[in-house]
Structures are given as C-alpha cells and as structure tokens.
Amino acid sequence: MGYNCRKFPFGLWLRVLSNPSQVVLRNIELFESKNVLLINHECDLLATALLEDAAKVTTLALDFNHFQRIKSHENARLQCHFGHQLPSTQTFDAVVLFYPKSKSLAPYLINLAGRHLIPGGELVIVGEKKGGIRSITKQLPDYFDGGIKLDNARHCMLYSSSLQSEAPEINLSDWVKAYVLSTPQGELTICNLVGVFSEKRLDEGTELLLEHLPTLKGRVLDFGCGAGVITAALLKANPDLELECVDINAMALASCELTMAANGMQAKVYASDGLTQIQGLFDAIISNPPFHDGLDSTTEIATRFVQESEAQLRSGGIWQIVANRHLPYSDTIAQFFNTVNVTAENNKYKIYANRKA
Predict the structure, then answer these.
(1) Domain total in the chain
(2) Most C-beta atoms within 10 A of its C-beta, which of 154, 214, 231, 311?
(3) Residue 350 falls within a domain, yes or no?
C-alpha cells in the first residue's frame, strides 16, 4: 500500500514531491473516492499519496525513469504504465495532466486525457508558471469547457476543466512530422512526434559523429536514440547490422519506430534506464549521449555511462560517441578504457573512439 498522507504529514511530503506534485496534493479533496489517472507525472510518489482519498490511481509515465520510480509501489489500487498511450481504453473520473516541458506535446496529452475521461469527467492540469501553463485555457479544445484556475502556489498553477463531448480518436500519424534528412550515409526519412526535439536538419554533433564512423559489424547499440537518426544512418550504410535502440522518452521511442518503418528498416527499440535494461554484449556502442550543460549530475551520469558501456562491449568492441568538448569525459574514459582517443573535433564537439581490450 502507499503512504497514508494524513499519517505522513504534508510538511514531510514537501521533501519528497516536486513542486507540481505538491500543488496537486494540496487539492487532494478533488479526488475523493474517484478513479484517477496521472499522465506525464513527475519522478516521485504522488500516486501513493493520492490513494489516501482516491479509490484507485493509474499512472502513465512518458519518462521511463519516472515509471521506474513508482512501479515498485504497485498494488491492487495502483497500476503503473510507461508509454505514449495506455494499453487499454479504460476511462476515469478524473485525469491529472502534468503540463509538458515541450509545449508542442500539450495538445496531444490533452487529447489523450479526453479519451480516458468519463462524460463530464474532470481534467486537472498542473505546471510550473514558467513552463507555459498560464495559457492553458486558450489551449483547451472545444470538447472541454473553458477551464478555471484552482490554485497558485510553489511557482506552479493548477487548472480544472470538464469533458463536454467525446474527444477525437488518436492516430499517431496526425501527430508526426516527417521530413527528408541528408546525412553522410545518404538521404533518410525522419519521423518526429510532437515533443521530440528536431531541427529538421542534421545537428552539428551528430553530423561530426556520422562523418567519422568506423567500419561496424554485428550487434550495435544506439544509446539515447531519439527519433532514430543515428540508427537509420548506420543501417543505410550497412543493412546487415543488428541494431538496438534505447531511450527513456516514450515519444522518442515511438518516433524511432516510425522512422524505421518509413525507411523500410528494422531495429529493436525499447526503454532503458541507462544501460540497465539491455542484455548481452555488443560489438559496438554508438551515441550522441543526451547529457547536456545545466545538469548537476552531468559528471556522475557520464561516468556511469562510460563504465556501463565498457562492461557491455565484447572484447575488441567499438565505443564511439560525440560530446560537447568541455564535458568531463577524458578522465572517465581513461579509467575504464585505459586510453583516450579523440578521432575528430571542432570548436564545439569531440569524437571519442575506443576499443575494448
């Protein structure tokens, strides 16, 4: 069972819940005796706290790490899912939607919420003030009412709306932008679902990586695959490669699958927290790792990635990544691969390429 939030004081929840989740919990009376769905929830245990008043809670995480955080707390009243859609057409009395960091994803999630609400069911939307939530009443489609603001606290806002008519059926093809991308390996069709970053051109780091690829064979891992640009380029150059693609973002994984289909290619696409969910050894790991400036744990994440990569390579296996030139990879690479090889670089990026001894 989850925590009893009345026995577990609200002040203590402040230490373990994100600001948006705290604002939802402040309004827990909205969910009394209701069957509740959380969409795009934070990496915390809000779902267990809501069980104090709600009859049942179901969660849909679009971030695999957020799913992993709550999954172990499943019980008869708490069901947890990862993906861009629920596996069933189940409907709920109330849906709590966490406003996404990518504003382009919001209409999709609102549509998804509408598909899973009973007639007249309540949509509760929460988000940080700086994240676009202020304009939510203008973003609500006509199958919801105008919406009202319920709360304003902890740098967040909470809105409510009710389902007035049936929400449109969701077809992924309506939410994807396909475009032709020129790469060193040839032209590719890339499919980007809403919320998945794309410049509709080859970004400078990935271009440098693809320009300096070694000869590959066998089983290859694309870590942080996004919409599948690197995987598609690898298969364009060598269709015999056995590609596996991992990411933590559900929309990215779905985009990667669409990209594979659009190019008549095949790859195994699945979610993984780092390299935790992959099995067996690889002949090569190729990546433009999704580690950027602004993350307090950039060094820790990079260290973990290098260590786990070395452990997942066969003897003689190739490890090649592109990274911002100032990120602290060299010492970690030297620690686990015994040497640091920079095979190409420009004023922004470096290509690190090593073989496992």
Answers:
(1) 2
(2) 231
(3) yes
